[in-house]
Amino acid sequence: MAIWLFGLISAVLLVLLGTVEGFWFDEFWLQIFGDDRLSIGLTAALLLTMGSTLLWPKLDKRLPRAAKLVFGVLMLGLFIIKALTAYVAYEKLTPKSRHIISATAYIDTISDGVYDPVMGSAYRQVATIHHIKPASASKMQALDVFNPFNDGAMTVPALDSSAHQAMEGATVMLSAHPNFTKTNLDELSNLKPAMAVSMQLLITPIDRTVSADGFDANQWLKTRHVHANAQILSIDEIKPRSAQSRRAQLGLKLEQYRQRLRTHFYQNWSTKTYAQAQADAVTLSLMTGDRALIDKSTKDLYQLAGISHLLAISGTHVLFLAMILSTVVTGITDRFALNIYQTLPRWQIRMAVMVAASVLYALFTGFEVPAVRTVYLLMAAWLIRYFVLPIGMVSALSWVALLMIWLDPYVLWQAGFWLSFIAVLVLMRYELSEAQLASGDSVLWQPKLWPQAVWQLAKLQFWLFFAMLPLSILLFGKISIWGLVVNLFAIGLFGFVVVPLNLLAGSLFWLLPQLADGLWFLASSLLYALHEALNFSLGHQLGAISAWWYAPFTMAGFLLCFLLVGLLILPKVLPRSLMMMPILAIVFLASDHSQPSLVLMHLPTDSQQTSQLLLIQSDGQKKRHWLILNDLGAKSLRANHANTLIDQLHRQGVARSGLDGVIVQSTSAIFMPMVAELATRMPVHRYWQAGDHQPLASLRHEPCQAGMTWQADGLMLRALTGWHEIDDERVQHCEIELLSDQSLTVMGMPMASDALPDIMEQSDDTKNKTQLIFNTSSEPLLWQLWEMMCASDESLKITEDLTHQRYWLSTSRTANSDALNTKLTETSQIILE
């Protein structure tokens, strides 16, 4: 019952939280859902509903189905109302526009990033803002904000008095980058927990668009209860702050100790080599959960190796420390205070120490989801044993998950929530749960059992990998196959060597700092060797081998995979005989059974003023792919642009046969290094580049010039313009004409000025043929030269075939040709921005 209830509530709340922004709430409903008394009433109703299960045995005999149905409906209704109250409470503090304010920021935790002008690292800090007021009159009620994309500063209005009251106590993400600020913000490096900072802030609403690589900043910040972004403009005053309650004081003390450890590790940071610094950064992360010093390259290395989960504070970390402390306490009790067992059983003392230690360590490491799950599971195991409750471990795990959802519905958006609970479910199915590992007989001192133990751990690793494969691909878009191999030794290295050394060093740092430094040096040296081995093997020796798996199907395939995993890990819920149905359906979805089609897909990008289009043509037997790139005024590409594009192409199945061609219509050279990197990751059969450029050493290109043609069954691409012999970039731009025997389907275009024609109203000859002109140049001289050249070169003329449905793809700044407009009538225009 519990596992089904968890699945139903999770599915409904995920849909609700994803669509609730489209709902309309008037003042009446906002006042109801925003009332604090409603939360108290909901908690009381939940406890009353849970208490009604005491009557379950009697109701189950008389009305078994009705009782379960009523209980499930009540629980679902309570969780829906709870999610709505959480949404309204969040939105009440969320700004709707950009403002400049003067406020006092309360720093309660360590920062997400370190402000260091020497290293060029940015500052990021979650903080609450209080004493909010508009920017002072002495600063003209408006401030000039540095704009890195424009030489001129942009002026942002100050926050009006009515709006700043609604933001009192809001949580914001403070940010400052030494390369993008005109003021001196060196004082940020001195900020620590338990401080109050008066500063000028530019408040910006959270961007709700998903980035090109699939990262949703809106969801990520909501899970951290951050209401807005806040760029630091200036700092006025820094002063210490004391907490009001004992709980807050304890939290600040733990955060201050985390800050002290970070400061200790960050000493002489600029003098360390890159590899040494990153080994120390990972060492600190494994002890305190502080990942501020880990850079993107190291994170990418761990992702490539399939061991990113080892960077997080997992339940194993918490359980290991709890086991050590409970063993020490019970050992001391056995030796010096045996009389205590007359009052309290030994197992209760052991469990009490484990729960207390796990709570403190979870608080110390930031109370992340896996650590919280372990704390609640230990509490649940204690209560189940104390009250002798007839509850299985799977049911207990489901109730713990429901408790976490009740306390914070937005936890459903955290990848760690799902990965943590699914991993524990798999371990329970394999009969190697964390509690059983903690209490089982050790094989360390029995050499005869070592081969069997290694074989069991290898089987467990393969079982975990394939059981969590669909969830990992759904959450992250891809998964590294190297994780199958690397995890076999990395989990043992981290779990039995590095983490114990870290925890021991952290415990001794108060009393014996020199001994702690020695232990940290040993742990860091092991990680240094691991990083070097991974870089050498995966980066240099095996770098050419594709390491990523992508989903070959859509959401329907994921649902079938989840059903298959559920049948494997929950054999008592559904019969195993049903496994063949999802297996056959998955095979059908993964197989290639495409129909003749022509698709033009816009691939999103985070690089400003660039366009990338993927053309997919299928004749029913073979697919062809062309990538069409345009520089619409960009100064540079983002550092991760190539990797993001490669991931997008993999998800569209391009890597199977490669790209038939790449066309860069613009004369800019910013795409050339990216295309060269793309060619190392998948086959690129042709590369047309507009303009006159020297070829790269690793990849040669053909200058895209007027008259170039590529043709296959049912598809032709032809360059209409492009004269690189003329030393003028205005006439080197390459405009393309496409002719196809299939009808066109446009996907993901940012804007279309005209609706695509109703194909059903066209004749049979017209609806199956397409003519598409890619016109992205803003220079009128290009088409003027084309008109002149057409008088002597028939191959450059536009095809005038009335049996084709005509499309014109352009930008808002595109230059048009009067001759083309006369020839191409009844054209559907697609505007690309």
**Tally of individual helices:** 27
- How many beta strands in the DSSP annotation? 22
Query: Structurally, how many domains make up the residues?
Result: 5
SS-derived structural category: alpha/beta
Strand content: 15-25%
Mean pLDDT across all residues, rounded?
Answer: 81
Gap between N and C termini, in Å?
Answer: 51 Å
What's the shape? Answer: globular
* Largest pleated sheet: 7 strands, mixed
Strand order of the largest sheet: 15-14-13-12-11-10-19
Q: Which segments are poorly predicted (pLDDT under 50) over 5 or more consecutive residues?
A: 432-444, 751-766
Q: Round the Cα radius of gyration to an integer and report it.
A: 31 Å
Q: What percentage of residues falls in helices of 4 or more residues?
A: 40-55%
Describe it.
- This protein is of the alpha/beta class and 833 residues long.
- It has five domains: 1-93, no CATH class; 99-242, OB fold (Dihydrolipoamide Acetyltransferase, E2P), CATH 2.40.50; 270-437 and 448-549, no CATH class; 555-590, no CATH class; 597-831, 4-Layer Sandwich (Metallo-beta-lactamase, Chain A).
- The strands form five sheets. A seven-stranded mixed β-sheet has the order 15-14-13-12-11-10-19, with no helix packed on it.
- The two termini are 51 Å apart.
- The model is unreliable at 432-444 and 751-766 (pLDDT under 50).
Task: Describe this structure in a few short sentences.
The protein is 46% helix and 16% strand.
List the helices and strands and how they pair.
Elements: H1 2-19, H2 27-33, H3 36-51, H4 56-62, H5 64-92, E1 99-107, E2 123-134, E3 142-145, E4 154-157, H6 161-166, E5 171-176, E6 195-204, H7 217-223, E7 228-240, H8 246-266, H9 274-288, H10 296-305, H11 315-336, H12 346-364, H13 369-387, H14 393-407, H15 415-429, H16 434-439, H17 450-467, H18 469-476, E8 479-480, H19 483-508, H20 513-541, E9 548-549, H21 555-569, H22 580-590, E10 597-602, E11 610-618, E12 623-631, H23 641-651, E13 661-664, H24 672-681, E14 687-689, E15 702-703, E16 709-712, E17 715-719, E18 736-740, E19 744-747, H25 764-767, E20 770-775, H26 780-790, E21 805-810, H27 818-823, E22 827-831
Helix pairs in contact: 1-5, 1-14, 3-5, 4-5, 8-9, 9-19, 9-20, 10-20, 11-12, 11-13, 11-19, 12-13, 13-14, 14-15, 17-19, 19-20, 21-22, 23-24
